[in-house]
Amino acid sequence: MNAPAEQRRYLRKQVFIAAQIVFSGTAPTLECTARDLSLQGVRLRLSTTYGIPDRFDVIIDGKRKPARSIWRTCTEIGVMFSDAPQRPAESIQNEKDIAPLLELLKMAAE
């Protein structure tokens, strides 16, 4: 059986860089590790992907970029960087979507 053909338009570079996922201005950031970085997207590794919405911002090397989830496993998310910032309605929906995640983070901190 042949391996599927590579579909990425940009070369990816293997990295091991601290990154953060940002849900909104009021929610805490979620620490993660950036892997396989390209101009188009990145693979993020974190403790769990449970409760993470499909759209969020990613901070890598101090640069904040809007992103959307393309695929995910229990501990990794493949994201594509998007050019358009989130609309306010999407931001409000993201805050509702991450409520269970925020509760888990609070419980873990206690």
Label the CATH architecture: Beta Barrel
Assign the CATH topology: Thrombin, subunit H
Separation, N- and C-terminal Cα atoms? 50 Å
What overall form do the CA principal axes indicate? globular
Number of distinct helices? 2
Backbone structural class: alpha+beta
CATH superfamily: predicted glycosyltransferase like domains
Summary?
This protein is of the alpha+beta class and 110 residues long. The protein has helices at 88-97, 99-109; strands spanning 17-22, 30-35, 41-45, 55-60, 63-72, 76-81. Strand 1 and strand 2 form a beta hairpin.
Tell me what you see in this structure.
The chain is α+β, with helices and mostly antiparallel strands and 110 residues long. It contains 2 helices and 6 strands, in the order E-E-E-E-E-E-H-H. The protein has helices at 88-97, 99-109, and strands at residues 17-22, 30-35, 41-45, 55-60, 63-72, 76-81. The longest helix has 11 residues, at 99-109. The protein is globular, with a radius of gyration of 14 Å.
Topology, pairings included?
Elements: E1 17-22, E2 30-35, E3 41-45, E4 55-60, E5 63-72, E6 76-81, H1 88-97, H2 99-109
Antiparallel strand pairs: 1-2, 1-4, 2-3, 3-6, 4-5, 5-6
